[in-house]
Amino acid sequence: MPHSDPVNWQPISEMPLIASMIDGALDDTRIHLETLTRARTRPHVLDDATIDRSKQVHAEQLEFVDIYARQINRWRTARPSADQTRELNRMDGQNQQLRTVTEAVLALADELRKGSIDRIMGMSDIELGLQALLGRGSASLR
User: Fold this and answer.
1) 83 with 16: CB under 8 angstroms?
2) 3-state SS assignment for residue 96
3) What letter does residue 10 receive in the DSSP assignment?
4) What is the CATH number of domain 12-141?
5) pLDDT by residue (tens digit) across 41-78?
6) Are 120 and 141 in contact (CB under 8 A)?
7) Rg (Cα) of the chain, in Å, rounded?
8) Single pTM value for the model
9) What SS3 class is residue 116?
10) How far apart are CA 31 and CA 128, in angstroms?
């Protein structure tokens, strides 16, 4: 986990590496958010373990978002060139988007957990029958 390890600050020559890490994480997280969004209407297809793993991964990712922000700020104090400054600005924007999308994944995971298969299976027959009579599918059990 990032919070237990000391941060190994990178020289500005490693900017392309860090930029690719931020860009890749943002792309992957957007795809994951799309997947979870599709499950919103049928959260019962997910189990608690899957949701918990997603939450763990993305909570750790938020820690990296903070580290990336600190790394970008450290590079800003190193008198970057004009090109490097433009790339730092782009990276900072991407990192802010990464924070937003990651927080959206975490919020959606919390929502989906309320209707997971584990929640459905934990309901009594009376609760399930009542939900059926009220016309509430698993999507409305949230």
Assistant:
1) no
2) helix
3) P
4) 1.20.58
5) 888 878 888 999 999 999 999 999 999 999 999 999 99
6) yes
7) 20
8) 0.82
9) coil
10) 33
